Amino acid sequence: MSAKKYFALIAAVTAVFIAFLYFSPKLFNSYTLIVLGNIYIFIILAVSYNLINGVTGQFSLEPNGFVAIGAYVTAILMLSPEVKEELYMLAEPLPLIRDVFLPNPFLTLLISGIVAALVALTLAFPVFRVRGDYLAIVTLGFGFIIRIFLINNPEISNGSMGLDSIPGFASYFWIGIACLLTVILIYNVVYSKYGRAMKAVRDDEDAALAMGVNTFKIKTLAFMTSAFFEGVGGGLLASSIGAISPDQFTFMLTFQLLIIIVLGGLGSMSGAILGTILVLGGMELLRPLDDANWHLGSIHGIPGLRMVIFSLLLLLIMLFARRGLLGDKEIWDYFKLKKNGVK
């Protein structure tokens, strides 16, 4: 694609999406807007997680840790010293934690992402000494360590009680804008020379190393970029919910993101977006099945039925789409193949 066509495409997609964001409050009720806002946040998390796991091919299970870091940094920066004095009941907050206050949402999210990226840089040295399943185990352990740290250090995080009264600066419109910027930025990374190097590492790390690719540098770059946007997503999540606790950042969050990117297709940006819409949107559409008062003919809702039906649907999709819905291609690649007569 030429540069002219590329910028035209980006401009068109941006215009359409901003128009959708503008008119959404007039078309949907408040509950639907909350669901859409949650989808936008998870798109940020999914495309950033897909960068390290799908594009670079590193089986990492760390997102819940970086999301937690972003959420807690955002909460600590946005809460005023007076509010912290009231919230911290398990232990007196550390002076630095108590006195730090940055009410600027943009700077807060930026710092949250930078802190997560710096932690990723520190982790990269021991983490990328191993590969494959061992890498998954090491990064899985990191997520557990972050959660235990948050619980056992109440002077920093208020322990298991978590933090609430977080300012809700993340409105529906600005969450959508953050989602759009994240997708555009990561898309540019994936289709840059660094993105090609990441795919080379994924396809054959030893061959990439033999061809002169600094594989450690590339994996670290992908890891830090992924962590940065996961930290930003965590900050948006904290602001949109208004309250956080360590129980929100268990392995189940990572598992949900893993389902999303595998369903959409590992390595596919549009696949990660499609997977997020299907998983989160599908869960909401099936929510009435959990209501005992709901019925369709002789079929009545049962608490937990939603998860059973949703799991069966995922199983059927994965049986017929072994590499995910889009594989490692983007959705527009299929239109090109169809135009060229390839089925």
TrEMBL record:
Pfam family, one: BPD_transp_2
Keyword line: Cell membrane, Membrane, Transmembrane, Transmembrane helix
Primary location group: membrane
Record localization: Cell membrane
Membrane topology type: Multi-pass membrane protein
Top-level taxon of the source organism: Bacteria
TM ranges: 7-25, 31-52, 64-81, 101-127, 134-151, 171-190, 257-281, 301-321
Coiled-coil residue spans: none
Protein name: Branched-chain amino acid ABC transporter permease
Record organism: Caminibacter pacificus
Taxonomic lineage: Bacteria, Pseudomonadati, Campylobacterota, Epsilonproteobacteria, Nautiliales
